[in-house]
Amino acid sequence: MSTPVENAADPLLVIDNIYKRFGTDADATVAVDHMSFGVKPGEFVSVIGPSGCGKSTLFNIIGGLLGDYDGEVRVGKERIDGPHPAIGMVFQEESTFPWRNVIDNVAFPLELRGVPKSERQDRAHHFIDMVGLANFEKRFPSQLSGGMKQRVSIARTLVSEPRILLMDEPFAALDEQTRLLLGDKILQIQQQLNQTTLLITHNLTEAVQLSDRIVVMTYRPGRLKRIVNIDLPRPRTSEVVGSDAFGHYVAEIWNDLREEASRGMVDAEASISRRSAARG
Amino acid sequence: MAATGAIAARPRKRTWLDLESGPAPSRSAVLGVRIVFAIVVIAIWEAISASGLFFGDVVPSLVKILASMWRLLIQDAFWTNLQVTALEILVALGIGAAAGIACGIILGANGFLRKAYEPFMYYFSPTPRIILFPIMIMWFGIGVESKVALGALSSFFPIALSTSAGMALIDKVLIRVGRSFRASAWQMATKIYLPAMRVPVLTGIRLGFGLAMITVLLAETKLSNKGLGYLVMQFYQRFDMPTLYALLIVLFLIAGAGNALIGRFERASR
Prior knowledge:
- Chain A is built from 8 helices and 10 strands.
- Chain A has helices spanning 55-62, 102-106, 108-112, 117-130, 146-159, 176-193, 204-210, 244-279, and strands at residues 13-22, 29-39, 44-48, 70-75, 78-79, 87-90, 164-168, 196-201, 213-217, 224-229.
- A 6-stranded mixed β-sheet of chain A has the order 6-7-8-3-9-10, with helices on both faces. A 4-stranded antiparallel β-sheet of chain A has the order 2-1-4-5, covered by helices on one side.
- In chain A, 39% of the residues are buried.
- Chain B has helices at residues 27-51, 62-73, 76-109, 111-124, 133-140, 144-168, 172-180, 185-222, 228-237, 241-268.
- Chain B is mainly α and 270 residues long.
- The radius of gyration of chain B is 25 Å and the shape is globular.
- Chain B has a single domain (69-268), classed as MetI-like (MetI-like fold).
- Chain B contains 10 helices and no strands.
- Chain A binds chain B through residues 63-65, 82-83, 85, 88-89, 91, 93-95, 97, 99, 108-109, 111-112, 160, and chain B through 171, 173-174, 176-177, 179-184, 187, 191-192, 195-196, 198, 269.
């Protein structure tokens, strides 16, 4: 495999004019409408948008799990076609293997590659320690809390040492306080590994807390509305949530997002009343 | 003593049908109830036997049954017939499980086939397989083969149905995880699909084992020249009731042990 020459300033991940629609011509929904942006090496970018804006579609396209779209996703100069080893995905749903304990869950990607057992245990241990679960290696997912399970999933993806970490609302199912604390963990890991990260989220504080840049999406069809640079100091912790600048960014992005979110809400309510009218 | 507990908080009153149960029952209490139950059953049995209400050996005393059991267990005839029956059940279960898991995977993986064929399986599945025995005798003769065929047919359905249901219930995100780490088809099958389905598959095998055992023994009592079912009918025709009861007890124990063994696998793999 030839490695194209890459400049440090060039984006590592390129989303180039992605267009995806579902359904037939007569009754098609455009989920993603000509989105383009890039993520530079070491950068943390969030994509934020209201529910139903096509964020998860974008996640699946970048992860190579969804095909049949127009445009390109590139890692460096290489166009991706299916799941790519440079991209490590963390899913929104609880996705640990219930029949494997923590260390075997985390070692899974190494097992697939045929890494010898002692080496994969060592490497899994390193990342389990990084997400703060060193004392839980022999536990099974059923014995862990929701936040701990998501940390197992994150460690499992990190152990495969992806150049780009791609996460889809990994903390959506958790309460606000756990979410802030896990945000700290993510900040710490991201800074430690200088990990290029793309986070899909609908959570404003999470996006501002973690990101260097935020890509704001419109509600259906999902277009790029605006890209906001977050100039908060690094290294960062969740304490930043209390600062004036933080509040400023949240207000600014909410301003963009409010219109989109209310369009989404009106749409959802209309479809519910259509359904109940059809039933009645 | 009576007044001391009056001020203490009264526990919520529980009805006999109460899913929001109180403290877990203690193991010794459960064991105690079991022992008392066994003693009561034995006592009633002995009382009926001693009362002379029934003719001769219809309800023989336990002492007689245990003595017959001893004579039964030292006979070569018992062990050769046990071997025949055990072999029939195991081969039947092996064939039924292999075919059932294969069919279940095909149905589970393909929504169209599942929609098309599953109703047939659900309708045919509760039909007593013994009604096919005459056909099996015509095809395979009165020997071991017809019992194996019938037992395999019995165990096939629950195993196929629970495998296909188990496959359809696999958490889809786990499959996406496998794909995102670029697992090969073989790795997907062995590291995700099979472990994710192990509990329903083992449940199917346990049900299939029970059905295979029922069908094989039933077939042996109908028409055969070997096996424990054949032996049951021999004792019955000789009106050797104590030995018949002894054999039934041995059969209960074998069935219980088989179920417990598979159940242990099932729990261990949870």
